[in-house]
């Protein structure tokens, strides 16, 4: 609680008390009340209690220790790429991906008064999504833990010329004046969120395909990745994401974050995963869930 700027603490305390009264309704997220992840929790489950957590690890711990039934974590954005390093957070978390959720991200510039804004404080992802708007006006981006936390900080410091880039709700919660709305550099500014749970869950019935997300590390031999991927091609399993990421001092891009259509138990998927495992040092399944937005 003490990590948050003072204007956010009373709201955080209220939400924490509501979550403690009924953890089954609580959805933990990283950030202060009014952050995009707060909006995502309410959009995904309107009757939930959004539980603000200062760091991603705190949101994951809240699910692990039973303070919240689920966590909702931003993973990638259509304008600015990867948001959270889930491949670092998830494997050791012991949690399962049970759903995905897409939120249209709308950024507002807000301040305590009408002084021209010289610095915009916000989450690096939000600053990156408004890069052209800020640059064209000579506004200096300043990184902070999250968007709404930045708004609470501006409301607390009341320094003339400081602004925050945050959702409209944050301006309301922390009593800031709106300088501009929808300052993101493109209209199709979407963030994909993953919903995490202690227990795996069968994908909900629905029109879209089932998705499965997993991590793997290929053996460091020629053509290992090519051969590891071959099983998906020969079995007709559609791969919608393959991202390499760096972990450890090897600096060899051999670890990957992958999304496919289908799930274990599908014969074609099982055959493809068997070939993947043969050419990999390890494979870590993170969860299966219904596709929430078609991959066009
Ligand atoms: O800081 C927030 O509002 C977050 O929830 C993180 C974030 C920031 C920008 C886009 C999506 C999520």
TrEMBL record:
Matching entries from PANTHER family are given as: PREPHENATE DEHYDRATASE P PROTEIN, PREPHENATE DEHYDRATASE-RELATED
Q: Report the enzyme's class at the first EC level.
A: lyase
Task: Recite the UniProt keywords alphabetically.
Answer: Amino-acid biosynthesis, Aromatic amino acid biosynthesis, Lyase, Phenylalanine biosynthesis
Q: Site annotated as Essential for prephenate dehydratase activity: where?
A: 191
Named in its record, the pathway it takes part in is:
Amino-acid biosynthesis; L-phenylalanine biosynthesis; phenylpyruvate from prephenate: step 1/1
**Signal sequence region:** none
One Gene Ontology term of the molecular function aspect: prephenate dehydratase activity
Q: Which GO terms describe its biological process?
A: L-phenylalanine biosynthetic process
Enzyme Commission number: 4.2.1.51
- The name this protein goes by in its record: prephenate dehydratase
Pfam families from the entry?
Answer: PDT (PF00800)
Q: What does UniProt give as GO cellular component?
A: cytoplasm
Ranges for domain Prephenate dehydratase: 26-198
So what does this thing catalyse? prephenate + H(+) = 3-phenylpyruvate + CO2 + H2O
Q: Which organism is it from?
A: Sphingobium herbicidovorans (strain ATCC 700291 / DSM 11019 / CCUG 56400 / KCTC 2939 / LMG 18315 / NBRC 16415 / MH) (Sphingomonas herbicidovorans)
């Amino acid at each position: 609680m003490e990590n948050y700027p003072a204007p956010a603490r009373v709201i955080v305390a209220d939400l924490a008390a509501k979550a403690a009264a009924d953890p089954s309704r609580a959805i933990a997220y990283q950030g202060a009340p009014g952050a995009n992840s707060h909006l995502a929790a309410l959009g995904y489950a309107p009757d939930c209690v959004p539980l603000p957590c200062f760091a991603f690890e705190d949101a994951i711990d809240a699910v692990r220790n039973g303070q919240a039934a689920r966590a909702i974590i931003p993973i990638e954005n259509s304008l600015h790429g990867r948001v959270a390093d889930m491949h670092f957070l998830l494997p050791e978390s012991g949690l399962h991906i049970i759903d995905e959720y897409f939120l249209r991200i709308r950024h507002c510039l807000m301040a305590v008064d009408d002084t021209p804004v010289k610095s915009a404080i916000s989450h690096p992802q939000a600053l990156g999504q408004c890069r052209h708007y800020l640059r064209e006006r000579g506004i200096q981006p300043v990184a902070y833990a999250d968007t709404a936390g930045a708004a609470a900080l501006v409301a607390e410091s009341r320094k003339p010329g400081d602004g925050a880039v945050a959702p409209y709700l944050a301006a309301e919660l922390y009593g800031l004046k709106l300088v501009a709305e929808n300052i993101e550099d493109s209209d199709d500014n979407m963030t994909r969120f993953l919903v995490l749970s202690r227990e795996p869950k069968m994908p909900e019935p629905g029109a879209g395909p089932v998705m499965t997300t997993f991590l793997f590390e290929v053996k460091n031999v020629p053509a290992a990745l090519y051969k590891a991927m071959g099983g998906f091609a020969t079995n007709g399993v559609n791969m919608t994401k393959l991202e390499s990421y760096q972990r450890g001092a090897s600096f060899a891009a051999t670890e990957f974050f992958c999304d496919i259509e289908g799930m274990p138990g599908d014969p074609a998927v099982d055959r493809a995963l068997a070939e993947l495992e043969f050419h990999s040092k390890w494979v870590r399944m993170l969860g299966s869930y219904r596709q929430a937005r078609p991959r066009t």
